[in-house]
Amino acid sequence: xxxxxxxxxxxxxxxxxxxxxxxxxxxxxxxxxxxxxxxxxxxxxxxxxxxxxxxxxxxxxxxxxxxxxxxxxxxxxxxxxxxxxxxxxxxxxxxxxxxxxxxxxxxxxxxxxxxxxxxxxxxxxxxxxxxxxxxxxxxxxxxxxxxxxxxxxxxxxxxxxxxxxxxxxxxxxxxxxxxxxxxxxxxxxxxxxxxxxxxxxxxxxxxxxxxxxxxxxxxxxxxxxxxxxxxxxxxxxxxxxxxxxxxxxxxxxxxxxxxxxxxxxxxxxxxxxxxxxxxxxxxxxxxxxxxxxxxxxxxxxxxxxxxxxxxxxxxxxxxxxxxxxxxxxxxxxxxxxxxxxxxxxxxxxxxxxxxxxxxxxxxxxxxxxxxxxxxxxxxxxxxxxxxxxxxxxxxxxxxxxxxxxxxxxxxxxxxxxxxxxxxxxxxxxxxxxxxxxxxxxxxxxxxxxxxxxxxxxxxxxxxxxxxxxxxxxxxxxxxxxxxxxxxxxxxxxxxxxxxxxxxxxxxxxxxxxxxxxxxxxxxxxxxxxxxxxxxxxxxxxxxxxxxxxxxx
Length: 552
Hints:
Pfam families: Sigma54_activat. It is built from 24 helices and 15 strands. It has helices at about 40-60, 65-70, 75-85, 85-90, 105-125, 145-160, 180-190, 220-230, 245-255, 270, 290-295, 330-335, 340-345, 355-365, 370-380, 410-415, 420-435, 445-455, 460-470, 475-485, 490-500, 505-515, 520-525, 530-535, and strands spanning about 5, 20-25, 30-35, 125-130, 165-170, 210-215, 235-240, 255, 265, 275-280, 305, 315-325, 350-355, 405, 440.
């Protein structure tokens, strides 16, 4: 595959790769450059014109083309004209390319195919934007304004269905604490959120609390993060289901030393989220008494929250906090069943309902959403840098450009996705794991994976969700598998995230995988490390059947 690189990192051009290489935003006598405009269309256009000029300079030096110059006096003027017009114009006029020169000789007409062929090669060339993993402040996309413009134009390019670009992570560690690659990719994912934000003014969400209603996995947390990013603020995320009723007041307000037995000076949720966003998930899990405490703090028309810590005197401190609440059941049902206080509901300024993934797919006639999400997951799955610091290629760049056989996208769209985006993410990682270094997704591959997916989810679960429009949490098996894959099958590195399921030791995790191997995907089980676990003895354990993790 013919690929050009537009490099935003300090990575030097690898000697072993014959690529068209551009340095963005830097002046260099050794490398071609494109100006850092932030607009990727402009950058690619600069590169295309530069390549076109170089190609024509080489073409006119060929003997058969030199012969045209001798036979046709206006030939070099014509070369200058098509050089200025660019390869796109040449392709538009390929059938009468030499008409202005009155060339009629068949031999000469054959030669004009060289110009058309070169123009097509340049216009169809794929572009990879090489972004730094860790970046110093001198990096081209370090400035927030440049980065935001780059993300905006990249998002527009992708949303239009263009598949000729990709992002890759540079392996050149130059220091710094900003991962441009991760920041850009996270922003692109956030733009798939159902929370619509105004691109010009920043946000359209009014002051006061926001409530998001949506099934598990529909992206409520991601939407809150997107909102925080657009507001230029940090976010504090709290799952109310994980906070006991007796501790909730202290956790919300904070405490002073001596306020009660074993009390220490501790900031509350709102103080930690001052000048930022506080995301309170699973509001329906909070008791009515706990909801009353929230009611006393929130204003329907303001982000100001007045709080005194537990143990303080009557004086209160004002905090500026954008509160985002989330429920994974219909608000109407929660109100009807008395599980959501009506007076608290009336303190909420905006209510947004998120659709399920299948509902979104049904509305997406152009398949743009699914194609975009799969593209982003493909880039994300290349977690290892494309280039190493020694200049050796670590990945085949062509793998960044996935081709889907006819019918594949339709099959994914029509499949049930009760786990919504969370389930689709795991499925996409399974897909790219099975795909390996191939670039073409066949119907055979997708049929196998969808059959496997159907076997993972009981039909009764899907039917119940279709009838009741409810969503239960993804199984522990999906969560464990996702975490291990994210850590590249390094089990010890996965343990900190698996502690919530009581999988805190290496042996406990191995036992869990062995006992429940039928619940994991074939792609997961095919990894050599997992295969070894299943076939080996577990040291220091009487048997995995004695182990029962927390699953809810």
